[in-house]
Automatic annotation (TrEMBL):
Keywords: Sigma factor, Transcription, Transcription regulation. Residues 14-79 form the RNA polymerase sigma-70 region domain. Belongs to the sigma-70 factor family. ECF subfamily. It comes from Drancourtella massiliensis. Gene3D superfamilies: 1.10.1740.10, Winged helix-like DNA-binding domain superfamily/Winged helix DNA-binding domain. Residues 113-154 form the RNA polymerase sigma factor 70 region 4 type domain. InterPro entries: RNA_pol_sigma-70-like (IPR039425), RNA_pol_sigma-70_dom (IPR014284), RNA_pol_sigma70_r2 (IPR007627), RNA_pol_sigma70_r4_t2 (IPR013249), RNA_pol_sigma_r2 (IPR013325), RNA_pol_sigma_r3/r4-like (IPR013324), WH-like_DNA-bd_sf (IPR036388). It comes from the Bacteria. Signal peptide: none annotated. This is Sigma-70 family RNA polymerase sigma factor.
């Protein structure tokens, strides 16, 4: 039987960061059901490795980094590549990406970026994380994050 403090801590973290983890997973996977699976897997990993959290970063950063790694593992799987292609084609046909009234949006351009630029753009603008937090999550130097932000912005015109 697991210690009661782990259950309480997990519950608190799920309440505090659950929505953010789910949104982060959706940004990577672009599928509601896969995102829910990835978020659930994230918290399973958080529970299993709770004792390894050393407090060198914030809880939010640590949990987000786990979520990002879970999503990257999903993306690496061959079946995901096939599903993602059909998912993207379906979204483009039904206009799901369009957000602005005039049909002009940055979303397709952002999702068209190479992963290293896309993830920093999404974490910075959508998740509203600080450069330091992004650097911790992605295990990069702050200068690398800033450079990727600059190049990603240039590629999409923001």
């Amino acid at each position: 039987m697991q210690p009661e403090w782990k259950k309480k801590k997990l519950k608190a973290w799920m309440e505090a960061y659950g929505d953010a983890v789910l949104r982060t997973c959706y940004l990577y996977l672009k599928d509601r059901y896969l995102s829910e699976d990835a978020a659930q897997e994230t918290f399973v990993k958080v529970y299993e490795h709770m004792e390894t959290f050393r407090g060198e970063s914030s809880e939010k950063t640590w949990i987000t980094r786990i979520a990002v790694n879970v999503c990257k593992n999903y993306i690496r799987k061959n079946w995901f590549q096939k599903e993602r292609t059909s998912l993207d084609e379906g979204r483009q046909q039904d206009g799901s990406y369009e957000m602005a009234e005039d049909g002009m949006t940055l979303v397709p351009a952002i999702f068209g970026l190479p992963e290293k630029y896309r993830e920093v753009i999404l974490l910075y603008y959508y998740r509203e994380l600080k450069v330091k937090e992004i650097a911790d999550i992605l295990d990069l130097k702050e200068a690398a994050v800033l450079q990727r932000l600059k190049r990603g912005r240039a590629d999409v015109g923001i």
